[in-house]
Amino acid sequence: SELKDPQADKDRVQKAPWLIVSGICTHLGCVPLGHDGPYDGWKCPCHGSIYDTSGRIRSGPAPLNLAVPEYKFLTDTRVKIG
Ligand code: FES
């Protein structure tokens, strides 16, 4: 509830351990760098938005979590995105 864009980690994942998110910062569209920042999630080099390992916005100017696109697991190892 303290998150800027509250969403449970489990609601962002269909099949653990796979997390599928769009790699586009929700501030102005830069590409955040993975395994970076205090949560070892993503850090946007443009204006410093910090996302956690679930792609949820934790600080900085980005208003929303990294988007979870429409996707579907076709098999255990194949996924269709979009
Ligand atoms: Fe990512 Fe501004 S575009 S913080």
Short description:
The mean pLDDT is 96. With 82 residues, this protein is mostly beta strands.
Rg, alpha carbons: 13 Å
Unreliable segments (pLDDT under 50, ≥5 consecutive)?
Answer: none
Q: What is the end-to-end distance?
A: 29 Å
State mean pLDDT (0 to 100 scale). Answer: 96
The set of bound ligands, ions and cofactors reads: FE2/S2 (inorganic) cluster
Largest sheet, described in full? Answer: 4 strands, antiparallel
Any chance you could write out the topology, listing elements then pairs?
Blueprint: E1 33-36, E2 41-43, E3 50-51, E4 57-59, E5 71-73, E6 79-81
Antiparallel strand pairs: 1-2, 2-3, 3-4, 5-6
The structure holds FE2/S2 (inorganic) cluster.
FE2/S2 (inorganic) cluster (FES) binds next to loops.
What would you say this structure looks like, in words?
- The chain is mostly beta strands.
- 0% of the residues lie in helices and 22% in strands.
- The strands form two sheets. A four-stranded antiparallel beta sheet has the order 1-2-3-4, with no helix packed on it.
- It is globular and about 40 Å long.
- The termini are far apart.
- FE2/S2 (inorganic) cluster is lined by residues 25, 27-30, 44, 46-49, 60-62.
